[in-house]
Each structure stands twice: as structure tokens, then as C-alpha cells.
TrEMBL record:
Record domain DUF1918: where: 1-56
InterPro entries per the UniProt record, alphabetical: DUF1918 (IPR015035)
Stretch list, region Disordered: 45-65
Protein name (Swiss-Prot/TrEMBL): DUF1918 domain-containing protein
Length: 65
């Protein structure tokens, strides 16, 4: 997985009723876009994350001109 600043990581819930958790990549700490990543949740909490197989990368959307 290779991410860049502004991409989103979606961690899928593991059990029925558990919602997906979405975070934004604010810093890439590994070489060439590889993990770990510093991420920020919607509530402002930041942490360092090395995504597992239950995570999906959503590239940031390019701004429209």
C-alpha cells in the first residue's frame, strides 16, 4: 500500500453492527509512500497507523478547476 498526504484510509468493521472507521493521512512516515502513516480521525484525534488487510486506501480527489 502506498499513500500520500490527503488520502483516506477506510478500516472496515470486523463484526456485524460495527461501522467503518475513516481517517485522513496527514503524514507519510515510511519510504516512498509506504507505512506507517500519521492519520487524523474526524474528531481530530491523531495516531500512527500501519494498515492491515481490513483497510482500503482511497486516493484524495483532485480539486476541480
Amino acid at each position: 500500500m502506498r499513500a500520500s498526504k490527503g488520502d483516506r484510509l477506510v478500516k472496515h468493521g470486523r463484526v456485524v453492527g460495527q461501522h467503518d472507521h475513516v481517517v485522513e493521512v496527514v503524514e507519510v512516515l515510511g519510504p516512498e509512500g509506504n507505512p506507517p502513516y500519521r492519520v487524523r480521525a474526524e474528531d481530530g484525534h491523531e495516531t500512527v497507523l500501519s494498515p492491515g488487510p481490513d483497510c482500503v486506501l482511497e486516493p484524495k480527489k483532485e480539486q476541480q478547476r
